[in-house]
Write a structure and sequence with these properties.
This protein is globular. The longest helix has 7 residues. The protein is mainly β. The strands form 2 sheets. The protein has a 6-stranded mixed β-barrel with strand order 2-14-11-13-12-15. Strands 3-6-5-9-10-7 form a 6-stranded mixed beta barrel. Helices cover 14% and strands 47% of the residues. It has 2 domains: 82 residues, Barwin-like endoglucanases; 106 residues, no CATH class. Strand 4 and strand 5 form a beta hairpin.
């Protein structure tokens, strides 16, 4: 698993697929729902969960219904799509780290109760979650660009950014476009290196 010689390292890591989803602020949630988010299932990232609640994401050119909310509530509203999704909505969101919404596309998030429209839609940058202990062990800092070798019939090497947080569970997140390009199934493994 873990080897480190000087500045080189190789580490086996699980890959998870991040489908389209939404993060909401407390204020946005109050406009869209009359009740608290409820947990459908916990996620590997500590304290995060897929909610039972879903929303509709729409533009003048397209609509996605039943888009899952990821909890808990956050300090920003964010819609994360793949480029394939974005084309169906007629928009071109920028590739960004979560929470970095400069240049984000405008979309409307709606429920039967209400709706909000704002510039909050991005394509999530490829990233690998880890906590500070794992980052220290690997000699990695937050936002450092790493390489991920993906085995299989459509193998390849791609860039992923380190995302270091206290609650980070060690795994790579790729959107559905990236996962499909490499024929990845959830929990497949790759090799992380510098």
């Amino acid at each position: 698993m873990y080897t480190k010689n000087g500045d080189s390292m190789k580490e086996t890591v699980k890959i998870n697929i991040s489908a389209r989803h939404v993060h909401l602020t407390r204020e946005a949630h109050a406009k869209l729902f009359d009740h608290d988010l409820t947990v459908r299932n916990p996620l590997n990232q500590v304290g995060q969960f897929a909610a039972n609640e879903t929303v509709t994401v729409k533009t003048a050119k397209g609509v996605f219904e039943n888009v899952r909310i990821i909890g808990p509530l956050r300090s920003y509203n964010q819609v994360e799509l793949s480029m394939t999704d974005a084309r169906k909505l007629g928009i071109k969101p920028p590739v960004r780290k979560s929470g970095h919404l400069d240049g984000a596309e405008v979309v409307t998030i709606s429920t039967p109760k209400g709706e909000i429209t704002e510039a909050c839609c991005i394509i999530a940058d490829r990233h690998v979650h880890m906590n500070p202990d794992t980052a220290l062990k690997l000699g990695v800092v937050d936002d450092e660009m790493l390489k991920l070798a993906i085995p299989g019939v459509k193998s390849g090497v791609i860039d992923v950014k380190a995302k270091v947080s206290d609650d980070g569970y060690f795994e790579v997140h790729l959107d559905t476009d990236d996962a499909n390009a490499f024929l990845i199934n959830p929990q497949d493994e790759g090799t992380l290196f510098k």
